[in-house]
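User: Design a sequence. Structure:
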């Protein structure tokens, strides 16, 4: 295990989460706006997370080959569910009175969504992102098996030679990584709830 492996692992996680947000938030918005498709969208992201991580990465590798692109797409799909679900939930929970006032002001559906409802739903969306980050830290261990590098390489090599000190050290590092990111994001999440949802403090 080395600092370069840790840095590589975090790079993969942050890159995948960025793409997850980019895809997940609009998908959650679509699930909220278009009720006939809501169940299908939510079902789709739930199914993606039930697929074993290695199997999902293997399927993607068949089409894209080994490498970081395969890993990032796999993590994106695997962590999509909490972002999509929380975006849809957050928009649904916006006070109906606020929506009615926005309509009364003549705001069109898309404008109202982006400028009124989405900012209010930010705490819910951030909670989904927080969950996605923690999921990605764990699943990124499998990146090594499809040519993506990261902490998985150290763990795999240690298992092969029965080096318990490296296995324990790598596992503790992953735990510290996940808990550290979760703690920082939990602090930010509480701030967002106080700012946007004072009644839910």
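Assistant: Done.
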């Amino acid at each position: 295990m080395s600092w370069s492996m840790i840095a590589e692992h975090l790079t993969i996680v942050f890159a995948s989460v960025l793409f997850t947000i980019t895809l997940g938030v609009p998908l959650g918005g679509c699930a909220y706006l278009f009720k006939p498709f809501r169940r299908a969208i939510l079902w789709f992201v739930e199914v993606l997370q039930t697929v074993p991580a290695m199997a999902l990465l293997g399927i993607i590798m068949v089409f894209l080959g080994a490498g970081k692109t395969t890993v990032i797409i796999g993590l994106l799909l695997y962590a999509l569910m909490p972002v999509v679900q929380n975006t849809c939930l957050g928009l649904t929970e916006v006070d109906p009175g606020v929506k009615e006032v926005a309509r009364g002001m003549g705001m069109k559906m898309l404008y109202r969504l982006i400028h009124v409802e989405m900012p209010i739903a930010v705490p819910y969306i951030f909670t989904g992102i927080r969950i996605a980050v923690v999921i990605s830290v764990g699943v990124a261990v499998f990146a090594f098996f499809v040519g993506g590098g990261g902490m998985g390489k150290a763990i795999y090599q240690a298992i092969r030679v029965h080096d318990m000190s490296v296995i324990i050290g790598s596992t503790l590092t992953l735990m510290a990584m996940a808990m550290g990111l979760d703690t920082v994001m939990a602090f930010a999440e509480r701030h967002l709830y106080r700012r946007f949802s004072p009644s839910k403090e």
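The mean pLDDT is 90. The chain has one domain: 3-200.
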